[in-house]
Amino acid sequence: MQLIDNYNFAGKKAIVRVDFNVPLNKETGEVSDDTRIRGALPTINKILQDGGSVILMSHMGRPKQNPDPKCSLQQIIPAVSKNLGGKEVKFVADCMKAHEAAANLKPGEVLLLENLRFYEEEEGKPRLAEDASEEEKAAGKARVKASQKEFVKTLASYADVYVNDAFGTAHRAHGSTALIADLFSTENKMFGYLINSELAAMDKVLQSKDAPKTAIMGGAKVSDKIQIISRLLPTIDNLIIGGGMTYTFIKAQGGNIGNSLCEADKLDLALDILKKAKEHNVNVYIPVDAVNADKFDPNANTNISKTNETPDGWMGLDIADETIAMFSDVIAKSKIVLWNGPMGVFEMDKFSKGTSAIAQALAKATANGAFTLIGGGDSVAAINKNKLADKVSYVSTGGGAMLEYMEGKVLPGIAAIRGDK
Ligand code: AMP
Fold it and tell me: Has this prediction a pTM greater than 0.85?
């Protein structure tokens, strides 16, 4: 496999798949959070400093047609340019019509292509009317599949070398994330620095022998996290459960959960996880006390109870002090920590204390030498809300992609370059 550090881009044109699916201010159309643009800078700068030129390609939003001005990447040119120190960013308003612009690109120059998803071929999914018949669906699928080869061939024709640095879409088998890689030789395709660091962080959690190793699983549903928990059990020492899924475990063990979130059809699954954890000598920590609300509302009345004695009519929306102390202690003693999913409804101030406390505990553990990886949209949002992103070891940029990798699934965007089976 080619490594970006070993590659000299001098005189080469590199087509780089980045994840510039950035949020825009609805009124001004300006980029409201440029984290993803900043994430791609090391790769872009390496190519430019070597004396190569860069062709950037990305998706943004969910365009409904071609073109779809609301999803135009033209809107992000100022933000990309600013992050490149004011460098001119050339733009082609149709990613299939960039032959000339690519051919004229000189070393040190940057060209941005319009949103790849303006074309159905990027995702390989036809745009269909809502009432499309089965026949129309099949015909649409066949049509897009047939033209997808030409789509990626055109993109590949712009460049000498392909770099994938879009971790957030690595779990999708799309034209620009996977199929295009087949059109470049092994020496001329590689991951960018962002994907490399994502893989290094996840592999460290999965493979490191440092102990104790702790996985903190929160969020709404146990059904979303079952696969990652199963995969991690043989490799971890501690499993911390939090968030809404707590109550499926409490109910499965005979506790009273009031109106708390519960997946009634997953009670056996919860018991099975506890059994498997025991078989693997994993300590499981489930919340013992909670902040309850009388309704799912930021202004709800609250009380505190044991999690297995939730009063009728109340629902647990955050972990309370005894649990915070217990979890913080486990985290403080850990050498490796993975955190996915909030401990409560952290979007509402009244129920955000537990999640903030866990974020603080992770920062403290990191300062004391632990390796801490945070992934999944909501835990990343919680770390950012607490302004602790630079106080933990690694914050993943790909929620879905990270979950799938940690679950042991083959990610098409990774496999296309690394050959994972
Ligand atoms: P997930 O996407 O599965 O990580 O779930 C994140 C969501 O779970 C967030 O929007 C939280 O508000 C929600 N959540 C966390 N704890 C609870 C809880 N105790 N009850 C209901 N929802 C919760």
Answer: yes
